[in-house]
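Troubleshooting: if your tokenizer reports a length mismatch, compare your output against this known-good record of 105 residues.
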Amino acid sequence: MIIDRFPGIRRIALEIAYDNGMINRYQSQSVWLSSLDEVLGADGVDEADLRVLDEWCLTLSDEDAETLAAGEQTEMEEVAARCPRPDLCGIFNDIFEQRPDLDQR
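Known-good structure output:
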């Protein structure tokens, strides 16, 4: 899985998933994480950019990581603004939209 190469991004992605019920009895953590290959491996996603974002995510406190993943919009934007490349935080919107099909078992 691509996500395994980026523990900081994985940390935020899991916060997003658990906060939004994306990982549950119908969608395991490993299946959901593997679905992120579609997001992280999409055309136009640069591995060097992912490394920059990943390294920054690893520096976040637990509170800031939770805010970035599941906070109120303006608070999320405040945390993202501290990223060396705030535009890269947009990938978390793509991760948020990677919703499980709850009817699929």
